[in-house]
Amino acid sequence: MAFFTQDYLDFFIELAPNNNKDWFDENRKRYTKSVKDPMKAFVEHLIEKGKAINPAWGELEAKDCIFRINRDIRFSKDKTPYKLNRSAVLVEGGKKNHSTPGLYFEMGPEDLRVYGGVYTLDKEQLLEVREAIAENLEEFQSAYQDENFLSTFGEIRGEKNKILPKHLKEAAAKEPLIFNKNWYYFAKFTPETILRDDLDEFILEQYQAAQKLNKFFTQHIK
Predict the structure, then answer these.
(1) DSSP letters of 129-172?
(2) Model confidence at 77, in pLDDT bands (50, 70, 90)?
(3) Distance between CA atoms of 35 and 29, rounded to whole angstroms?
(4) Does pLDDT of 167 surpass 90?
(5) How far apart are CA 146 and CA 211, in angstroms?
(6) Which entry of 14, 53, 99, 162 is 20 to 30 Å from 219 by CA?
(7) 56: three-class secondary structure by DSSP
(8) What does DSSP assign to residue 70?
């Protein structure tokens, strides 16, 4: 079952050169019909289907997962008020949880992106993950060298520190990813993918391709 029509993509294509409140207000009914309501229905469906993979998702509601279309322009030079895509995350506790691996996706007229990993960790959590990698090098390397992960996401990305605690330096010489401050991965697909009848299954397949890494991070983050 397809949740989105071509007008989902067309809405954002037309919003791009008209990114202002007046145009948005004039097209608000169209936004509700072609973007907002289908997104809510899709996320509700994905929660129901995905809880067989991750039971913690069964506690979620769509409002816990879907990010606002409004941009945060307080500290940005770009004052256009609206994002040119819709995004959501399925993770225990919802979108306020920034440290547990989940399924994050963005859908716009340029592409569909599916993300995973851990991005925002506090100081204690960061040390926990680094020490976990150092103490379980083979398990960690096996997870990101997994055939499904490599064919879907290719590599682990993330910002790095130049300096590490002394007790991690020996392990970091064997595994440079210990220098990371975050560990995330994503895959891009054509915007037409959003219109697929099996979009739910397709997105869940991408999430499952990183299950070994998700399990590793989940086990070692308190």
Answers:
(1) HHHHHHHTHHHHHHHHT-HHHHHHT-S-B--B-S---GGGHHHH
(2) confident
(3) 10
(4) yes
(5) 10
(6) 162
(7) helix
(8) B
| Structure token pair of residue 180 | 């990371």
Helix (H, G, I), strand (E, B) or coil at 205: helix
- List all residues 6 or more positions away from 76 whose beta carbon is below 8 Å from its beta carbon: none
The mean pLDDT value for 165-182 works out to: 97
Matching residue, tokens 């940005």:
76
Gap between the Cα atoms of 69 and 86, Å rounded? 6
Q: Which bin fits 93, alpha (ψ -120 to 50), beta or left (φ > 0)?
A: left
- Can you name the CATH fold of 6-220? BirA Bifunctional Protein; domain 2 (3.30.930)
**Which amino acid appears at position 198 of this protein?**
D
Only one residue has tokens 């995004």, namely 87
- Separation CA 93–CA 42 (nearest Å): 19
Cβ atoms of 55 and 64 closer than 8 Å: no
Average pLDDT of the chain, as a whole number:
95
| 44: amino acid identity, one letter | E
Nearest of 53, 60, 70 to residue 91 by alpha carbon: 60
**Residue 181, token pair as written in the block:** 């401050």
> How many other β-carbons are positioned within 10 Å of the β-carbon of residue 48?
13
Give 206's strand partners: none
Other Cβ atoms less than 10 A from the Cβ of 153: the count is 23
| Backbone φ, ψ for residue 171 (5° rounding) | -70, -35
DSSP, collapsed to helix, strand or coil, labels residue 188 as strand
